[in-house]
Design goal:
Alpha-Beta Plaits, Uridine Diphospho-n-acetylenolpyruvylglucosamine Reductase, domain 3, binds D-malate, 462 residues, seven-stranded antiparallel β-sheet, alpha+beta, single chain, Uridine Diphospho-n-acetylenolpyruvylglucosamine Reductase, domain 2, binds zinc ion, 35% helix
């Protein structure tokens, strides 16, 4: 180990490193629980050539690198548990250029996502990727995990908004991929391989991102529902008639945590088992009429039991707070997280089957449901009861996971819709991907990273 430290210190001055126990703990993990961090050292490259040098040294001297962004990941993709060298992008945080004609921005990988969104807004545009951790996540990490969030139903995943990437491969070469082009039909698009690769093929060091015009006249409604079926019925009723900007849901079990954490009142005067939030563009009032008519029908059928409306920025923010703050509000309770998805047509049957398993096998734990139901993406969070240890809790959750993932497999769904695989979900990959597909994924890894220096052990053991 000391020789790896010596090699790094012979090539970079002291300003490149953090070595205190506190920093090793901080930079050696993401927002995942359960896997204790144990990195060797944290290095902070300042340029692409520094990254390239680090990769060259790792290949030459056989040590493993863990790329690290804002560390907001939830699948342990950025956890260094095996004495790896953590390569933080914190110092590669420059906004390189904004192109007004193309409505694109070129940034280094360490730029905080919210800063990119602010620049878009200053130019009367939007960067249409929105999730609760945007204030601390970095764009490189978001791209490496193909981030989603609450507006995927309208704008798609981050993949849709990356028009160019600069990467340093695991072999140490710098590749410029797609160069900001809108059209480019020249064979394999390696940019898309790096998006979602979780740092296993190389480092994303720069990105070109597309902005677009903002929606006009946003309206938001929060609904209270008697059960989960009512949430699905509401979503599918609106989905058939209007092109919404977002449709999210959460169970009442989430509400106490958010109220406690953010010091807010109940979402509606009375509590209901489930809530949903619909966001749509008013569209010269046309959508309002459709929404109002559908709302009345659903209200009469007792599918919707109450509602709160938001059309100015303060009321919209307040409503979204109930959904967006769930993750932060529960994080100190070490929830066991699942991030499942199926096609929207299957969501009803899928959810009912999963719920049966969960109710039968977790009688003592608190079950929290929330997520992006209009994308077919459900977050199932289990919170430990006080009378069992963390390790017993984890063991139990892993057993139940198998039953849940068998249902995922049956519906041809995904074991990780938007949080990635990392270390946490890798032993379940085969529930979502065939042996043959995993074989090809490993072959691709071997091409870009033949010595397995890049985030070794994440996604799969290559
Ligand atoms: C969310 O939708 O709130 C995020 O994916 C984070 C989480 O699942 O906790
Ligand atoms: Zn989510």
């Amino acid at each position: 180990m000391s020789s790896i430290l010596e090699i790094l210190k012979n090539n970079f001055d002291a300003s490149f490193f953090k070595t205190s126990k506190e920093d090793l703990l901080k930079y050696g993990k993401d927002w995942t629980n359960f896997i204790p961090p144990n990195p060797l050292i944290i290095i902070f490259p300042k340029t692409i050539f520094d990254v390239q040098k680090i990769v060259q040294l790792a290949n030459e001297h056989h040590f493993v690198l863990v790329p690290s962004g804002g560390r907001t990941g939830l699948s342990a993709g950025a956890v260094a548990a095996q004495n790896e060298v953590v390569v933080s992008m914190d110092k590669m945080d420059k906004i390189l250029s904004f192109n007004e004609l193309e409505q694109t921005i070129q940034v280094e990988a360490g730029v905080i996502t919210e800063n990119i969104k602010k620049i878009a807004e200053e130019n009367n545009l939007i960067f249409p990727i929105d999730f609760a951790s945007k204030g601390s996540s970095q764009i490189g990490g978001n791209i490496a995990t193909n981030a989603g969030g609450i507006q995927v139903v309208k704008y798609g995943l981050i993949r849709n908004w990356v028009t160019g990437l600069k990467v340093v491969t695991g072999r140490g070469e710098i590749l410029e991929l797609n160069q900001g082009l809108i059209k480019n039909a020249t064979g394999y698009d390696l940019r898309h391989l790096f998006i979602g690769s979780e740092g296993t093929l190389g480092f994303i060091v720069e990105a070109t991102l597309q902005f677009i015009s903002p929606p006009k006249n946003k309206q938001v409604i929060l609904f209270g529902h008697p059960n989960i079926e009512a949430v699905i019925k509401t979503m599918s009723t609106f989905r058939k008639k209007i092109d919404f900007l977002a449709f999210e849901f959460f169970s009442d079990s989430c509400v106490d945590y958010v109220m406690e954490h953010t010091q807010v009142d109940t979402p509606l005067p009375q509590r209901f088992p489930y809530y949903s939030i619909l966001e749509f563009e008013s569209n010269d009032g046309k959508n309002n009429d459709i929404v109002f008519q559908l709302y009345q029908e659903l209200y009469q059928e007792k599918i919707i039991l109450d509602d709160a409306f938001g059309s100015d920025s303060i009321s919209i923010k307040k409503i979204w707070g109930y959904r967006e703050n769930i993750s932060a509000s529960i994080s100190s309770f070490s929830p066991y997280k699942n991030d499942l998805s199926v096609t929207i047509s299957n969501i009803h049957l899928f959810l009912l089957e999963i719920e049966k398993v969960v109710v039968n096998h977790y009688p003592l734990f608190k079950i929290l449901w929330y997520g992006h139901i209009a994308d077919g993406n459900l977050h199932l969070n289990i919170i430990k009861s006080n009378d069992i240890s963390i390790s017993e809790f984890e063991k139990k959750c892993k057993e139940v996971n198998i039953l849940i993932f068998e249902i995922v497999q049956k519906y041809k769904g995904s074991i990780s819709a938007e949080h990635g695989v990392g270390l946490l979900k890798k032993s379940y990959l085969e529930y979502s991907k065939s042996q043959e597909e995993i074989f090809y994924m490993k072959m691709i890894k071997n091409i870009f990273d033949p010595n397995h220096i890049m985030n070794k052990g994440k996604i799969f053991d290559a």
